[in-house]
Amino acid sequence: MRKLFLLIVLMASIVGCSLEGSSNSSAEIEKEEPIQEEINEETPPPQKSKSEYVPNPQVTDDRTLLSVGETFRDEKGYAMLKSYKKLDRKFSTGPIELVVKDLKIIEYQPDYSLIDFFHSYTHEEKFTFVKIFIEIENKSDEVLNFAPVAQMEMDNSEKKTWEDDIYLEELNGKIRPGEKKAGNIGVIVENPDINSIKITTSKVFNQSESEIFKEQIVNIHF
Hints:
This protein is an alpha+beta fold. It has a domain at 71-221: Immunoglobulin-like. It is built from 2 helices and 13 strands; from the N terminus they run αβββαββββββββββ. It has helices at 2-42, 115-118, and strands at residues 71-74, 77-93, 96-110, 127-138, 144-146, 151-154, 159-161, 173-175, 180-189, 196-200, 204-206, 211-213, 217-221. The chain has a 5-stranded antiparallel beta sheet with strand order 1-2-3-4-9, with no helix packed on it. Strands 8-5-11-12 form a 4-stranded antiparallel beta sheet, with no helix packed on it. Strand 6 and strand 7 (159-161) form a beta hairpin.
């Protein structure tokens, strides 16, 4: 009988400890959950910065090239800076705000894996291109159609259009109300001896394809 009594007491103690541990765990969970919910509510999901660099699939990263003669190599190729102009100049083409951030002339030798892509622009394995980094913003309340660089004309009379762009970063076309776009436009040139460039934007069109503002001309001197 005494052994049975001791066994019952022992089992009761074990059950009691288990219940107490379970109760403590529940209490701890109940205390932690509101804290976690509070963090989730107050901490917004991570967002990409508007200035965050997005690698181009066919042209090497030139962000570190800021002085003439500097070079950079990555898996896409080898680049050397021939000319550089920091601008940050703002222009308005009707409801479109255009900011020309900088302009570079770069000598470029793409990696062999990209030769086929560039053959639609040139058959040279090493070439020079003019690159402009721009930002545009639609200040209106309607969808518009716009090309920030419809044509480039160099002072040596060489001309290029938006169809010659090697970056293909989709800066042309529709831009929604309040939308901002930023990126590069670059064209291969035959004569790299350039002192100035005249950039002509497209006209601004609405969704009905009606012209609402004329083109803008931007002159840049190195």
